[in-house]
Amino acid sequence: MNYEQFFADRISDLHREGRYRIFADLERQAGAFPMAKNYRDGKVQDVTVWCSNDYLGMGQHPIVLEAMCEAVQRCGAGAGGTRNISGTNHYHVLLEEELASWNRKEAALLFNSGYVANQTTLMTLGNQIPGLHIFSDSLNHNSMIEGIRQGKAIRHIFKHNDVKDLDRLMSAVDRDAPKLVAFESVYSMDGDIAPLADICDVAEKHGALTYCDEVHACGMYGVKGSGVCERDGVLDRITIVQGTLAKAVGVVGGYIAASRALTDFIRSFGPGFIFSSALPPAIAAGALASIRHLKEHNEIRIRHQERANTLKSRLAAAGIPALPSVCHIVPVMVGDAVLCKQASDDLMRRHNIYVQPINYPTVPKGSERLRITPTPLHDDAMLERLMVALTDVWGRLGIRKAA
Ligand SMILES: *Cc1c(COP(=O)(O)O)cnc(C)c1O
């Protein structure tokens, strides 16, 4: 086999379909959020970032940076091992306690990413619970899909956010078989939110465990900010809450929060937890400071929602087609891979605005979009410049407007 030719051909296919991924080469500017330097074609340009998952700007918050610097000075760079072999630092222990109490659970477990948290937890449950059936929302994130696939559980996919379909599928399975329902709270590509209480009703009716990915909600919903499960008053009905420390919390890492026995079980049997070196202590210290701050500052979340709502109404007034998002994510539809990339390029080149195009396979073909994520730190002047830029690009490229 000509291996090199094989790789090159597969890449050519991506180019031909207009979905070859080019990463913006950025240098974020601590203290000037959401500004960054963009390195392109040997030049450097100042851009306003409108697509970051650092949803609240916590990745540059002085409290977080101070905690991280202090921990580096105190403990050094790396953790020095897996959690079992010398890698558990006191910051990990404090952070796990904080995550447990934030999510009103007995215990929590840290992972090196939200991805690994989903993959390891779901795979381990699938491999260890004999005859487990997992019911998975059709739009679940790749990390959940992979975790479910890699385990031995019997898989069922229910229609997105459709509790009738979930109930129908669950009713077809033996009453006494162990079951788990896996879903997200906020779905980050369309900006819709799961009917959590209804899902819990169905899960309870069938005696199932519930698993909720709060990656796009933790830090941002509920008075204490732990997520939509808190906001909707269903935390005690969710068996396992999963989240990330890399989005609104602003650092990196993932977690689950659950009962003491379940958490200890994943700690003891989950390969992606056991066989990987622990997060650096400074990362745990930064995440801890960030969560403690977010818990006590609900006004950040109020401002965040206000910014998103203001952007949504400005877009509607300008005829720029946004999906009817019910959260902080504002997907603006283009519907064509090449046009979507062109729109993003024009925003960057002509307007110093960075919004990454979102193409297949992240979203279905024909639903290519610009996914805009306003934060509490995007001020009115930035919003005004974004509207001018979008209006210009929509006109210039002849992209379809809203009816
Ligand atoms: C980003 C994401 C993850 C993975 O979290 P990381 O901490 O970035 O690895 C998991 N679930 C969903 C829904 C995500 O969007």
Question: How would you describe this protein?
Answer:
There is one protein chain. The protein is 44% helix and 17% strand. The strands form four sheets. A seven-stranded mixed beta sheet has the order 4-12-11-10-7-5-6, sandwiched between helices. A hairpin with a 6-residue loop joins β1 and β2. The protein is globular and about 60 Å long. The protein starts with a helix and ends in a 6-residue tail after the last helix. The model has no long low-confidence stretch (mean pLDDT 97). The structure holds pyridoxal-5'-phosphate. Pyridoxal-5'-phosphate binds next to α5.
Principal-axis shape equals globular
Biggest sheet details? 7 strands, mixed
Bound molecules: pyridoxal-5'-phosphate
Helical proportion?
40-55%
Supply Rg.
22 Å
The computed structural class is alpha/beta
Terminal-residue CA separation: 52 Å
The low-confidence runs, each spanning 5 or more residues with pLDDT under 50, are none
- Total helix count? 15
Strand runs, count: 16
Percent strand: 15-25%
The largest beta-sheet arranges its strands as 4-12-11-10-7-5-6
Query: Taking all residues together, what is the mean pLDDT?
Result: 97
